[in-house]
Amino acid sequence: MNDVTLKLKPARRERLADVLYGQILEQIASGQMAEGAKLPSEAHICRDFQVSRPVVREALMRLQADGLVVSRQGIGTFVKSRPSDKLTSLAASAEIAIYLRAFEPRLALETECAGLAAMRRTKAQLNQIGEALAALEGAFARGETGWEEDFAFHHAVAEAAGNELFPRLLEELRDILSGSMRMALGLTRQGSDDRRRRVLEEHRKIYSAISGQNRDLARLYMRYHLTESRARITGSHGDL
Protein backbone atom coordinates (compact mmCIF):
# COMPACT_ATOMS: atom_id res chain seq x y z
CA MET A 1 0.00 0.00 0.00
CA ASN A 2 1.50 3.30 -1.10
CA ASP A 3 0.81 6.74 0.34
CA VAL A 4 -0.32 9.33 -2.19
CA THR A 5 -0.48 13.10 -2.38
CA LEU A 6 -3.88 14.61 -3.15
CA LYS A 7 -3.97 17.46 -5.64
CA LEU A 8 -6.77 19.60 -4.24
CA LYS A 9 -8.14 22.95 -5.34
CA PRO A 10 -9.52 25.25 -2.62
CA ALA A 11 -13.30 25.59 -2.90
CA ARG A 12 -15.42 28.71 -2.59
CA ARG A 13 -19.01 27.47 -2.62
CA GLU A 14 -21.72 25.87 -0.50
CA ARG A 15 -21.66 22.15 0.30
CA LEU A 16 -17.90 22.10 0.57
CA ALA A 17 -18.06 18.48 1.67
CA ASP A 18 -19.62 17.55 -1.69
CA VAL A 19 -16.92 19.44 -3.57
CA LEU A 20 -14.19 17.71 -1.56
CA TYR A 21 -15.95 14.36 -2.02
CA GLY A 22 -16.00 14.97 -5.77
CA GLN A 23 -12.34 15.90 -6.02
CA ILE A 24 -11.24 12.80 -4.12
CA LEU A 25 -13.64 10.67 -6.17
CA GLU A 26 -12.19 12.04 -9.42
CA GLN A 27 -8.70 10.99 -8.39
CA ILE A 28 -9.87 7.52 -7.38
CA ALA A 29 -11.88 7.02 -10.60
CA SER A 30 -9.01 8.26 -12.79
CA GLY A 31 -6.56 5.85 -11.19
CA GLN A 32 -4.41 8.59 -9.67
CA MET A 33 -5.21 6.94 -6.35
CA ALA A 34 -5.03 3.18 -6.66
CA GLU A 35 -6.93 0.68 -4.55
CA GLY A 36 -5.11 0.30 -1.25
CA ALA A 37 -3.54 3.76 -1.41
CA LYS A 38 -3.57 5.72 1.84
CA LEU A 39 -5.20 9.15 1.86
CA PRO A 40 -3.42 12.07 3.54
CA SER A 41 -4.38 12.83 7.14
CA GLU A 42 -7.41 14.97 7.95
CA ALA A 43 -5.07 17.78 8.98
CA HIS A 44 -3.32 17.71 5.60
CA ILE A 45 -6.61 17.71 3.70
CA CYS A 46 -7.88 20.62 5.84
CA ARG A 47 -4.77 22.60 4.97
CA ASP A 48 -4.76 21.81 1.25
CA PHE A 49 -8.51 22.28 0.75
CA GLN A 50 -8.72 25.23 3.17
CA VAL A 51 -11.73 23.96 5.07
CA SER A 52 -12.55 22.91 8.62
CA ARG A 53 -12.12 19.42 9.98
CA PRO A 54 -15.92 18.76 10.12
CA VAL A 55 -16.10 19.32 6.34
CA VAL A 56 -13.30 16.82 5.77
CA ARG A 57 -14.89 14.30 8.11
CA GLU A 58 -18.25 14.59 6.36
CA ALA A 59 -16.66 14.02 2.94
CA LEU A 60 -14.68 11.02 4.19
CA MET A 61 -17.76 9.63 5.94
CA ARG A 62 -19.73 9.81 2.67
CA LEU A 63 -16.90 8.19 0.72
CA GLN A 64 -16.82 5.38 3.27
CA ALA A 65 -20.61 4.98 3.21
CA ASP A 66 -20.42 4.65 -0.58
CA GLY A 67 -17.81 1.91 -0.30
CA LEU A 68 -15.03 3.94 -1.92
CA VAL A 69 -12.70 4.21 1.08
CA VAL A 70 -12.24 2.36 4.34
CA SER A 71 -11.04 3.80 7.64
CA ARG A 72 -8.71 1.79 9.86
CA GLN A 73 -8.56 3.09 13.39
CA GLY A 74 -5.15 4.37 14.34
CA ILE A 75 -3.78 3.78 10.84
CA GLY A 76 -5.66 5.99 8.38
CA THR A 77 -8.10 5.99 5.47
CA PHE A 78 -7.46 3.86 2.38
CA VAL A 79 -8.98 3.54 -1.08
CA LYS A 80 -11.24 0.49 -1.06
CA SER A 81 -12.71 0.38 -4.57
CA ARG A 82 -12.44 2.25 -7.83
CA PRO A 83 -15.55 3.26 -9.78
CA SER A 84 -15.58 3.47 -13.56
CA ASP A 85 -13.40 6.21 -14.99
CA LYS A 86 -16.45 7.14 -17.11
CA LEU A 87 -18.37 8.21 -14.00
CA THR A 88 -17.17 11.81 -13.92
CA SER A 89 -18.05 12.24 -17.61
CA LEU A 90 -21.71 11.55 -16.76
CA ALA A 91 -22.07 14.02 -13.88
CA ALA A 92 -20.12 16.84 -12.28
CA SER A 93 -17.94 15.42 -9.52
CA ALA A 94 -19.62 17.42 -6.73
CA GLU A 95 -23.08 16.36 -7.97
CA ILE A 96 -22.17 12.68 -7.70
CA ALA A 97 -22.23 12.97 -3.91
CA ILE A 98 -25.76 14.40 -4.06
CA TYR A 99 -26.96 11.73 -6.48
CA LEU A 100 -25.59 8.95 -4.30
CA ARG A 101 -27.18 10.46 -1.19
CA ALA A 102 -30.52 10.26 -3.00
CA PHE A 103 -30.45 6.48 -2.61
CA GLU A 104 -30.99 6.74 1.15
CA PRO A 105 -34.44 8.39 0.96
CA ARG A 106 -35.24 6.27 -2.09
CA LEU A 107 -34.61 3.09 -0.12
CA ALA A 108 -36.95 4.25 2.63
CA LEU A 109 -39.64 5.59 0.31
CA GLU A 110 -39.65 3.22 -2.65
CA THR A 111 -39.26 0.02 -0.66
CA GLU A 112 -42.49 0.86 1.15
CA CYS A 113 -44.13 1.96 -2.11
CA ALA A 114 -43.42 -1.43 -3.67
CA GLY A 115 -44.88 -3.30 -0.70
CA LEU A 116 -48.03 -1.19 -0.64
CA ALA A 117 -48.39 -1.41 -4.42
CA ALA A 118 -48.42 -5.20 -4.15
CA MET A 119 -51.34 -4.95 -1.72
CA ARG A 120 -53.31 -2.08 -3.26
CA ARG A 121 -52.62 -1.90 -6.98
CA THR A 122 -55.53 -1.97 -9.39
CA LYS A 123 -55.47 -3.78 -12.71
CA ALA A 124 -55.07 -0.45 -14.50
CA GLN A 125 -52.14 0.51 -12.27
CA LEU A 126 -50.47 -2.85 -12.84
CA ASN A 127 -50.85 -2.32 -16.58
CA GLN A 128 -49.20 1.09 -16.21
CA ILE A 129 -46.23 -0.46 -14.42
CA GLY A 130 -46.03 -3.13 -17.12
CA GLU A 131 -46.12 -0.52 -19.89
CA ALA A 132 -43.31 1.41 -18.21
CA LEU A 133 -41.27 -1.79 -17.96
CA ALA A 134 -41.85 -2.55 -21.65
CA ALA A 135 -40.78 1.01 -22.52
CA LEU A 136 -37.57 0.57 -20.51
CA GLU A 137 -36.86 -2.71 -22.31
CA GLY A 138 -37.41 -0.94 -25.63
CA ALA A 139 -35.06 1.90 -24.70
CA PHE A 140 -32.33 -0.59 -23.79
CA ALA A 141 -32.88 -2.47 -27.06
CA ARG A 142 -32.40 0.80 -28.98
CA GLY A 143 -29.17 1.51 -27.10
CA GLU A 144 -30.66 4.45 -25.21
CA THR A 145 -30.01 5.33 -21.58
CA GLY A 146 -33.68 4.90 -20.69
CA TRP A 147 -33.70 7.17 -17.65
CA GLU A 148 -37.10 8.67 -18.49
CA GLU A 149 -38.60 5.20 -18.85
CA ASP A 150 -36.95 4.19 -15.59
CA PHE A 151 -38.43 7.18 -13.78
CA ALA A 152 -41.83 6.34 -15.26
CA PHE A 153 -41.54 2.79 -13.91
CA HIS A 154 -40.73 3.92 -10.37
CA HIS A 155 -43.38 6.64 -10.53
CA ALA A 156 -45.98 4.08 -11.61
CA VAL A 157 -45.07 1.89 -8.63
CA ALA A 158 -45.49 4.90 -6.33
CA GLU A 159 -48.90 5.68 -7.83
CA ALA A 160 -49.99 2.07 -7.30
CA ALA A 161 -49.16 2.37 -3.58
CA GLY A 162 -52.53 4.03 -3.08
CA ASN A 163 -51.33 7.21 -1.38
CA GLU A 164 -51.10 10.36 -3.50
CA LEU A 165 -48.21 11.66 -1.38
CA PHE A 166 -45.81 8.99 -2.66
CA PRO A 167 -45.80 10.09 -6.33
CA ARG A 168 -45.79 13.72 -5.20
CA LEU A 169 -42.64 13.08 -3.19
CA LEU A 170 -40.97 11.49 -6.21
CA GLU A 171 -41.93 14.52 -8.28
CA GLU A 172 -40.35 16.79 -5.67
CA LEU A 173 -37.13 14.80 -6.02
CA ARG A 174 -37.37 14.52 -9.80
CA ASP A 175 -34.35 16.70 -10.64
CA ILE A 176 -32.05 14.78 -8.31
CA LEU A 177 -33.52 11.40 -9.24
CA SER A 178 -33.23 12.09 -12.97
CA GLY A 179 -29.57 13.03 -12.52
CA SER A 180 -28.97 9.89 -10.50
CA MET A 181 -30.74 7.73 -13.08
CA ARG A 182 -28.86 9.33 -15.99
CA MET A 183 -25.61 8.56 -14.21
CA ALA A 184 -26.47 4.98 -13.24
CA LEU A 185 -28.04 4.04 -16.57
CA GLY A 186 -25.33 5.88 -18.51
CA LEU A 187 -22.82 3.51 -16.94
CA THR A 188 -25.14 0.58 -17.67
CA ARG A 189 -25.39 1.55 -21.34
CA GLN A 190 -21.60 1.62 -21.57
CA GLY A 191 -21.26 -1.63 -19.62
CA SER A 192 -21.60 -5.27 -20.53
CA ASP A 193 -24.65 -7.00 -22.01
CA ASP A 194 -24.87 -8.98 -18.76
CA ARG A 195 -25.09 -5.78 -16.76
CA ARG A 196 -27.98 -4.51 -18.88
CA ARG A 197 -29.70 -7.88 -18.60
CA ARG A 198 -29.43 -7.82 -14.81
CA VAL A 199 -30.81 -4.29 -14.56
CA LEU A 200 -33.87 -5.29 -16.58
CA GLU A 201 -34.29 -8.49 -14.59
CA GLU A 202 -34.37 -6.49 -11.35
CA HIS A 203 -37.26 -4.41 -12.74
CA ARG A 204 -39.07 -7.53 -13.96
CA LYS A 205 -38.89 -9.10 -10.50
CA ILE A 206 -40.39 -5.98 -8.92
CA TYR A 207 -43.21 -6.07 -11.46
CA SER A 208 -43.77 -9.79 -10.93
CA ALA A 209 -43.98 -9.43 -7.14
CA ILE A 210 -46.47 -6.57 -7.43
CA SER A 211 -48.46 -8.53 -10.01
CA GLY A 212 -48.56 -11.52 -7.65
CA GLN A 213 -49.54 -9.26 -4.73
CA ASN A 214 -46.57 -10.47 -2.70
CA ARG A 215 -45.76 -7.56 -0.39
CA ASP A 216 -42.61 -9.03 1.14
CA LEU A 217 -41.08 -9.96 -2.21
CA ALA A 218 -41.95 -6.58 -3.71
CA ARG A 219 -40.18 -4.82 -0.85
CA LEU A 220 -37.21 -7.17 -1.07
CA TYR A 221 -36.79 -6.78 -4.83
CA MET A 222 -37.10 -2.99 -4.73
CA ARG A 223 -34.53 -2.73 -1.95
CA TYR A 224 -32.21 -5.10 -3.80
CA HIS A 225 -32.58 -3.13 -7.03
CA LEU A 226 -31.79 0.23 -5.41
CA THR A 227 -28.87 -1.22 -3.44
CA GLU A 228 -27.43 -2.76 -6.61
CA SER A 229 -27.95 0.48 -8.54
CA ARG A 230 -25.88 2.35 -6.00
CA ALA A 231 -23.20 -0.35 -5.99
CA ARG A 232 -22.98 -0.25 -9.79
CA ILE A 233 -22.23 3.47 -9.63
CA THR A 234 -19.51 3.21 -7.00
CA GLY A 235 -18.03 0.01 -8.42
CA SER A 236 -18.13 -1.51 -4.94
CA HIS A 237 -18.75 -5.02 -6.30
CA GLY A 238 -16.64 -4.76 -9.44
CA ASP A 239 -19.61 -4.74 -11.81
CA LEU A 240 -18.87 -3.89 -15.43
From TrEMBL:
Annotated keywords: DNA-binding, Transcription, Transcription regulation
Gene source species: Rhizobium meliloti (Ensifer meliloti)
HTH gntR-type domain location, by residue?
14-82
What name has this protein been given in UniProt? Answer: GntR family transcriptional regulator
Pfam families cross-referenced by the UniProt entry: FCD, GntR
**Where does the sequence pass through the membrane?**
none
Q: What is the lineage of its organism?
A: Bacteria, Pseudomonadati, Pseudomonadota, Alphaproteobacteria, Hyphomicrobiales
**What's a Gene Ontology MF term here?**
DNA binding
